[in-house]
Amino acid sequence: MAVYKRPELIADAPSGYCPGCLHSLATKLVAEAIEELGQADNALNVISVGCSALNILYWSGDFLSVAHGRAPAAATGIKRTNPERLVFAYQGDGDLAAIGLAEIMSAANRGENFTVVFANNQTYGMTGGQMAPTTLIGQKTTTTVYGRDPQTTGYPMKMCELISTLEAPVYVARFALNSPKGVNDARKGLKKAFRLQMEGKGFTFIELLTNCPTNWKMTPLQTLEYMNTNTIPYFKPGVYKDKEAQA
Amino acid sequence: MGEKRFMKGNEAIAEAAVRAGCRFFAGYPITPQNEIPEYLSRRLPEVGGAYVQGESEVASVNMVYGAAAMGTRSMTSSSGPGISLKAEGISYLAAAMLPAVIVNISRGGPGLGSIQPAQSDYLQATKALGHGGFHAMVFAPNSAQEAADIMYAAWDYAERDRNPVLVLMDGCLGNIMEAVDLPPMREIKPEDAPEWSLSRRNGRDYQGNITPIYTEPILEGINAMAGEMYKAWEEDDVKVEEFMVEDAEYIIVAYGIASRVSKEAVLNLREKGFKVGLIRPITLYPFPKKSIRNLDYDRVKGIIDIEMTIPAQMREDIELQVMGRCPVYEYGRSGGCLLDDDGVYDAIYEIITGGDR
Ligand SMILES: Cc1ncc(C[n+]2csc(CCOP(=O)(O)OP(=O)(O)O)c2C)c(N)n1
Q: Which domain holds residue B300?
């Protein structure tokens, strides 16, 4: 029987996230997966820059807050000196796929034994909704008011696809948090990634498709529908690499 | 106790770091400091430490940020172009109050500049290692021996202050070989991880958190605390060598490689009967203000700033202490062109005998 309660790793305080923002659900899923593996005391959250930085206020486990895009580098320093810890970085799409592109690709390529949780909301939420590397073609943002034009801004970056071309990563998967099935799959995927890390298997990458009601200028329900009709067809959920299953 | 070895300045830095208890290095190749990462890539695994070749200086200093947060003695090294990239991470180290050692083996600048030695990073090192108005202690050794001694002590300062420390040495000193008396190996156990660190090896069972971001009143308090710390450095931590200063009428101020060439000139000029002395800042920050401020300006006729960079960068720090009481002159070479004995001797001679510079 499932018991629904606030994970211990999340402080008993109101979430700072906007109503309907899937960052809070994503954070809760991460906390639950860690607790189910009995790793709450051992986990270290490397907090990136973006809306995820709100975790500083309500993540009640160990954390290190780091510079924009550099979470995989900081996590490398942590894990190389403290391999017994469960280390994960939680990054947004601007953080990971723009300013931190070198850090994420290089950490993945080195096969660093930690987990990166990538919250892809297709916008720069924290700074007010500018275009992100993952913004969909035609999607309106404060810096693409007529919609993203690939002629001048290129195409949305598919990070799972890119990372799964590398040799070292052991588990790379994308889940959409706009449906109960997506949430259940994400739960399992996160748990698997953390388990593989604790078994010393190597780099694991979980992309979570999320939303941004405030900056998409939609109601929460409309964002979930938009994800079905626009986000998911482009960023296809699924397991992109699973060395354990291949073995 | 000690152990004598013939080694490059860069190698002396690396070996002394290991003996000081450094167990994590991340860096990116750049001349003229490559011996440091090369040495540590072999040496750190021998003592249970970790070496990572980062994808950039930006990544490397952030790796150090992560390792330092775990209470591991950590360092990175680079030269001008890379130190500029590390500026972000050094500022974050200062903000998060994390101890780490940064080594700059300096070369000609600005830009890609030149791979040959120069002292062109004084202002960056002492005034603005990164954004946000913080300082790090800056040490400027002038021999492989002194570099080793400074590295050995560097983490003690960094951990005392919970602040990064910079060691600034030009590529010349990094690459010449000298005899070095190495300090003994220091044993640092996992349970020694500082209480503030995120390590749980020290028995901590409550939440550990470290951030470079604060609410406004707390940040203001942290800024003020840092200000007090910088003042305390000036009282307690200034290191300076004063050579033949007591009766000197002309005083050279020079650090690092420039101080070695200048000392030679002082000895030669003394032989000719000229009353010349040398003040050598070993800490560039805190700057040895009193050594210059408290000179007897009834006797001292001029101060000569000699640096391996043009224009001289230390000059303003000197002038602030001289306060117009005597002229301040400068002589230098730059861009990777080296100071030499004759050039320095002639320049000082010309100044003393009434020439203008
Ligand atoms: C070096 C640097 N550049 C820019 C910023 C400003 N900044 C803060 S958050 C952010 C965007 C974050 O967007 P994303 O990673 O997509 O996360 P989200 O807020 O959408 O969750 C930016 C650009 C910064 N903090 N540091």
A: 240-353
Q: How high is the ipTM of this complex?
A: 0.97
Q: Is the peptide bond before B286 cis (omega within 30 degrees of 0)?
A: yes
Put the strands of the sheet holding B276-281 in their side by side order. Answer: B240-243, B276-281, B250-253, B302-307, B328-332
Q: How far is CA B210 from CA A24, A27, B269, B340, in A?
A: 21, 19, 55, 48
Q: Whose CA is nearest to atom 10 of ligand 1?
A: A50
pLDDT digits (tens, 9 = 90+) for B304-315: 999 999 999 999
Give me the amino acid identity at B4.
K
Q: How do beta strands B24-27 and B74-78 pair?
A: parallel
CB distance A74–B58 less than 8 Å?
no
- A205, β-bridge pairs: A116, A172
The more confidently predicted of residues B24 and A16 is: B24
Answer yes or no: do B141 and B176 share one domain: yes
- Tell whether ligand 1 has an atom less than 6 A from the beta carbon of residue A124: yes
Instruction: Taking the CA atoms of B148, B73, B23 and A75 in sequence, report the sign of the dihedral they define.
Output: negative
Q: CA separation (Å) from A80 to B160, B169, B329?
A: 24, 29, 50
Could you report the per-residue pLDDT of B96-131, keeping only the tens digit for each?
999 999 999 999 999 999 999 999 999 999 999 999
pTM: 0.97
Q: Could you report the per-residue pLDDT of B234-250, keeping only the tens digit for each?
A: 999 999 999 999 999 99
pLDDT in tens, A78-88: 999 999 999 99
Number of domains in chain B: 2
> Quick one: CA torsion of A157, B52, A69, B69, rounded to 10 degrees?
150
Residue A2 has pLDDT above 70, yes or no: no
Q: Provide the CA A50 distance to its chain's centre, in angstroms.
A: 12
- All structural domains of chain A, each given as residue ranges with its CATH number in brackets, are 23-246 (3.40.50.970)
B122 and B261 housed in the same domain: no
Mutation target to probe the A interface, by most A beta carbons within 10 A, among B22, B24, B40, B55 is B55
